[in-house]
Design brief:
This protein is of the alpha+beta class. The protein has two domains: 197 residues, no CATH class; 136 residues, no CATH class. The protein is built from eight helices and 19 strands. Helix 4 crosses helix 8.
Length: 366
């Protein structure tokens, strides 16, 4: 199968001002199972243990009438976006762009708008709801999102031509605003009024959902709600595996686990320990009475699981597995009571609205 190497070009998605955009990057590092490698088979990008560190390259729109694409073509002129970003391998697509030389001897990469729209659509179509909030966040700059320098005629003096720059390769579902997907998936699925969550902060999400499981009158522990999305079992099925190397404790098997669209990676060991600033210890645990191939059970659901699945077994023998101490209960109650407390918000930027180029959008059908 094809391999990708450090310094190879890739296509991936990033978040900018609550919108999802395509970017082209250069690989700086590849990690698999927390080990750096210089190359990797493209077939392995889907593995949950693969991460790619990359730098965004700057593309400039150019006029090339010979290629027959009136929405423009794009070239890399050896400039990069400041900073580096890390993204899961499954968000990455290797690319093989056209390469051409210049009189100075530099090699430039070239793309058509159609190629970039196709890449954006393919990557965006693979994202789950949780994935939308796990994309690297990128600040707007002069060079990104990519701008199409379209030509527009001055209404009063038609002989004057101005450059109408618009952001290109935004990803959106048909009929939706470009921000609708990313904004909708930020919020807790149960809270009313809505509470925004930082889905990149897995411990905070686990704490918030734990508060619902213990204190929300509309969430019944008898249905064994998922610790990430609160949907009842068996809609979300979580499996564990043994950790590798130094992390020999249990870990979530993200490949085998199914159903939960909001499942995000988290450090199992720290999440399983209650702390004053992160009181929940609600993690998936192995039921000692279920078959070896059975899915894990969330700790806060274990009592109801035991009563429903193993009613004739001696529950007191296993209480150490799912016991919730008083300090933890107090901390979760405080989280529940403070869930609607106003949080400090970042002042709105004075930057101008980011106009989107309709002819360069990647639009997915509903």
């Amino acid at each position: 199968s094809d391999s990708m190497c450090v310094n190879d070009p890739i296509a991936t998605l990033v978040s900018c001002e609550d919108k999802v955009f395509l970017c082209i990057g250069v690989i700086l590092a590849i990690k698999r199972d927390n080990h750096s490698v210089m190359s990797l088979s493209s077939d392995l990008l889907v593995e949950s243990t693969v991460d790619i560190r990359f730098q965004i390259i700057r593309l400039r729109s150019v006029v090339d009438t010979d290629r027959g694409d009136d929405s423009g073509n794009w070239r890399w002129t050896q400039q990069h976006y400041d900073g580096t970003f890390t993204t899961p391998g499954r968000f990455v697509e290797p690319v093989n762009p056209e390469v051409f030389g210049t009189s100075s001897g530099q090699a430039h990469l070239s793309f058509t708008s159609a190629e970039l729209r196709t890449l954006a659509s393919a990557l965006y179509g693979q994202l789950s709801k949780t994935d939308l909030n796990c994309l690297p966040s990128v600040k707007r700059t002069i060079g990104f999102p990519y701008r199409f320098e379209g030509l527009s005629f001055h209404l009063v003096e038609p002989h004057l031509i101005t450059s109408a720059e618009k952001a290109c390769f935004a990803c959106v579902r048909e009929g939706n605003d470009p921000t609708s997907d990313t904004l909708a998936e930020r919020f807790c699925p149960r809270c009313e009024p809505a509470v925004a969550l930082d889905w990149k902060d897995a411990p905070a999400v686990l704490n918030h959902m734990a508060a619902h499981i213990l204190h929300d009158p509309f969430i019944r522990d008898s249905v064994e709600p998922c610790g990430f999305c609160l949907r009842p079992s068996p809609q979300c099925v979580i499996y564990l595996r043994k950790g590798k190397g130094k992390k020999r404790g249990p870990q979530v098997d993200y490949v085998k686990s199914k159903g939960c669209e909001r499942l995000v990676k988290f450090a199992y060991g720290p999440a399983s320990t209650s702390k004053p600033n992160s009181p929940s210890s609600n993690v998936p645990i192995v039921c000692p009475l279920c078959p070896d191939h059975a899915p894990a059970v969330w700790k806060y659901n274990f009592a109801s699981h035991f009563e429903r699945t193993h009613p004739r077994s001696a529950r007191e023998k296993y209480e150490d597995i799912f016991k919730i101490e008083g300090a933890e209960r107090h901390g979760i109650l405080a989280t529940w009571n403070a869930r609607h407390t106003a949080r400090a918000t970042v002042a709105k930027s004075n930057t101008t609205h980011l106009a989107i180029s309709d002819s360069h959008r990647a639009v997915l059908p509903l």
